UniProtKB/TrEMBL annotation:
Alphabetic keyword roster: Amino-acid biosynthesis, Decarboxylase, Lyase, Lysine biosynthesis, Pyridoxal phosphate
Species annotation: Flavobacterium profundi
Sequence positions that bind pyridoxal 5'-phosphate: G218, Y356
Cited NCBIfam families: lysA
EC id: 4.1.1.20
Protein name (record): Diaminopimelate decarboxylase
Subunit and partners: Homodimer.
Keyword Amino-acid biosynthesis: yes
Stored Pfam families: Orn_Arg_deC_N (PF02784), Orn_DAP_Arg_deC (PF00278)
UniProt record, GO biological process: lysine biosynthetic process via diaminopimelate
PANTHER family referenced in this protein's UniProt entry, alphabetically: DIAMINOPIMELATE DECARBOXYLASE, GROUP IV DECARBOXYLASE
Keyword Zinc-finger: no
Organism phylogeny: Bacteria, Pseudomonadati, Bacteroidota, Flavobacteriia, Flavobacteriales
InterPro entries referenced in this protein's UniProt entry, alphabetically: Ala_racemase/Decarboxylase_C, DAP_deCOOHase_LysA, De-COase2_C, De-COase2_N, De-COase2_pyr-phos_BS, Orn/DAP/Arg_de-COase, PLP-binding_barrel
Orn/DAP/Arg decarboxylase 2 N-terminal domain segment(s): 23-266
Amino acid sequence: MKNQDLLQLVEEFGSPLYVYDAAKIESQYKRLTDAFSKVEQFKIHYAVKALSNISILKVLKKLGSGLDTVSIEEVMLGLHAGFDPQEIMYTPNGVSLEEIENVAEMGVQINIDNLSFLEQFGTKHPKTPVCVRINPHVMAGGNANISVGHIDSKFGISIHQLPHLLRIIENTNMNINGIHMHTGSDILDIDVFLYAAEILFETAKHFKNLEFIDFGSGFKVPYKKDDIETNVEEFGKKLTKRFLAFEKEYGKPLTLAFEPGKFLVSEAGFFLAKVNVVKQTTSTVFAGIDSGFNHLIRPMLYGSQHYIENISNPKGKERYYSVVGYICETDTFANNRRISEIHEGDILCFRNAGAYCFSMASNYNSRVKPAEVLWLNGKGHLIRQRESFEDIIRNQVEIDILNETVIA
């Protein structure tokens, strides 16, 4: 997408605004499928939590993707978007057994990550196919909040609990058709990933009726110019070779599955915001925009750095700015960042705004959520309307406090 396209979309749909480039999603999807082209049964399950707009789900369905879901609501979104139940993987954490059973009734692939629920579910529903999430105790990921495969993680069944796990399966005679892991996000060192994969292969030998092995995801994408990223092509060659060898050892064809979210949609996303004020203090020049961490929380929550460009003045002289929001707390998007000279009214573009950006937005400070637009075949399509004040109060129930007598 060109700057002029983005500026036109702001003119048409207002700011702040999320824009997603369908062509970039497609190219990332193809990049991953090409990397594993020698695997006969290869399946991608898009991680819905990254960006859950129904139109985005439909783009991925058209490409041939399945879905990775973590809640019954995400399952329902997938079904609403036209996915067949068998195309959906459900990998919850800390939900009720009732929710797991309700999802199972929908015909979705269940993935259980704790021994207690595995035993309870297997006792009641021994014929329902179940995948097991293993914690390989491998520390991977770019931030403690997104590293989920280490020994202190709440996710998965520890490999050290394998004897207990096998005893439950034997006692319940339940059907384990898949094995799964996810070590974290922003993984750069593919050797760490391959090491965790070896643990999963070794564990898989204990299960005789597997149909698939799911390696999660977590591939790192570039967040700024000349940034490093996961070499998925090299990773594809190495894991393919090892997977095909394991498949022969296992004695039957298996599906190799991944659950990418950020890898597919992060670089496709642009967040556009207008500069309300340029404020000079004794030590800093602030560029205050018409948004805050209510719309984009990743820089404050994870310390992530989104490349920021002044698309209203892209060739201007670069100066140092701290880009901040309008929330009544410190909500700093960037500290002392070199950006083309900013004037009030300019439009700033935040790159890599496709994953975990709108999906983590809130109404904090009673602000409305922005609109979303899909750029498809050279045209912007509105895929979510900007909220209004009526949306904020829609589900609130007012009672007649003013005419009530308050008893201390």
